[in-house]
Amino acid sequence: MEAKTKQVLYVVRGGETERMHTVPHINGYSVAQHSYGVVSLLLILHPNPPLELIRTALWHDTSEHYTGDVPAHAKWDFPELKAAIDSAERSLSKHMGMGEEFLLTKDEQHWLKSCDLMELWLWSRNQIRLGNTRARIVMERIETFFGNLVPEVYALWRDLYREDGDYGREDDDDRYFVAKK
Fold first, then answer.
1. How many separate domains does the chain show?
2. Structural domain that includes position 45
3. pLDDT tens-digit series, residues 40-73
4. Among residues 66, 108, 112, which one has the least CA distance to residue 91?
5. Which of 59, 73, 87, 91 could make an SS bond with 99 (beta carbons 3.0 to 4.6 A apart)?
6. What is the CATH number of the domain that holds 61?
7. Which of 15, 124, 112, 139 is nearest to 55 (CA)?
8. What is the pTM of this model?
9. What is the pLDDT of residues 117-158, one digit of tens each?
10. Residues 69, 73, 78, CA angle at the centre, nearest 5°?
11. Is residue 139 part of a domain?
């Protein structure tokens, strides 16, 4: 099989991988959906995102079709598991010629991590609005990291948090997208 064909199949299979399988949720949540959100946040919030950052953001979780989406709390509780998974994911990404997080500058890594967390926070927020109270713990865990976000992502979170208050309001309907008369 040609190398480019293998890369295409790797990306397709990676995008189909289900995220958050340990948290019951409404509708699916694939790596492709997540990656689209991360890249969209980068393109909207970053003043001039480098191509390598966009590539890495787009493909940063594709290896999960091989390793699975190992829950963060499992990695926190078992550092040896985190080290093994990180090593496997780096090896798979390098082997497939995909974006490699370790090639990014510290600033780019910070942007990627910030948008990665923000996208998951937005997913959790949406789950709660759909009635899935089990997503609240995900949201609360993510928020413990928000003091370390890049300022542009933190400002977005602050604006949404101020708008939401207790996460229970459902007023972010299409009125934001309708032109004022």
1. 1
2. 3-169
3. 999 999 999 999 999 999 999 999 998 989 998 8
4. 66
5. 59
6. 1.10.3210.10
7. 112
8. 0.86
9. 999 999 999 999 999 999 999 999 999 998 899 999 999 998
10. 95
11. yes
